[in-house]
Design a protein that fits this description.
Blueprint lengths: L21 H21 L6 H8 L3 H7 L3 H12 L11 H18 L2 H11 L9 H7 L1 H22 L2 H7 L4 H17 L7 H14 L22
Helix pairs in contact: 1-2, 1-4, 4-8, 5-8, 5-10, 5-11, 6-8, 10-11
């Protein structure tokens, strides 16, 4: 049976050592080290309470003080393994969008954890069966945090591009969530469908089609003209 901690004492027993006791942070870190190792090797199914406590040498009671259940533990492990958000490149609107789509395609090819986490969230634990955001935050904090971080991964870099005056002038009013789906959706679908990975030219075509649908007409070969905003007289 796993030991409660190195010195045999429970590091997170309420009222004994205080919320700031370093043993609490240490035991959580050991649990997450074990969970991420199991997740990387065997997927979400490998992250069981027994496997994690055994590998981390932490008591089950201690684990349950950090995580309400196994799903919360898996969510925290996924969140820990998410790669950093890609930086926003320099260049005009088209160049920036192409670079971001290419970066997302490369991440899914080389580090598929974000896609795996999305599939697990979509097929596994439900987040819609709560009466309020407060109840969800209280009962499923790790799941909520993972969802927020997944959304942030895809939105933050694009946020920095779409809010610029140049982007607003060229794109006009548009549905932001739909725009993300149009730009990132093909990349995710290609990976889910086990199709050949999208190369740079394919990512360029995705962006060009996105811009063309909003009245921007970038030239694909040779020098690119500055995209224009659609007007009532535009074809």
């Amino acid at each position: 049976m796993p030991a409660p901690d190195d010195d045999g004492r429970d590091p997170v027993a309420p009222g004994r050592y205080g919320d700031e006791d370093p043993r609490k942070a240490r035991s959580r870190a050991r649990l997450l080290d074990a969970a991420t190792a199991l997740l990387a090797k065997g997927g979400a199914e490998a992250v069981t309470i027994d496997a994690v406590t055994g590998l981390a040498r932490v008591a089950r009671a201690t684990l349950y003080r950090h995580f309400a259940n196994g799903e919360e533990l898996v969510a925290a492990a996924f969140a820990r393994m998410l790669p950093p958000i890609p930086p926003v490149p320099d260049g005009d609107l088209r160049d920036q969008l192409v670079a971001l789509v290419v970066a997302q395609a490369r991440i899914l090819d080389e580090i598929p954890i974000p896609l795996t986490a999305m599939c697990w969230m979509g097929l596994g634990p439900g987040l819609g069966d709560y009466s309020s955001a407060e109840a969800l935050s209280h009962e499923r904090p790790e799941l909520l945090s993972l969802r927020e971080r997944l959304v942030e991964r895809y939105r933050e870099a694009f946020d920095r591009v779409f809010v610029t005056p140049t982007a607003r002038e060229q794109l006009g009013d548009f549905d932001y969530d739909l725009a993300l789906a149009q730009l990132i959706g093909p990349v995710v679908f290609t990976k889910l469908a086990t199709l050949p990975s999208l190369d740079h030219a394919a990512c360029e075509r995705i962006v060009d089609d996105f811009l063309a649908a909003r009245g921007c007409r970038p030239v694909r070969n040779g020098p690119r003209a500055v995209p224009t905003v659609a007007t009532d007289e535009s074809p």
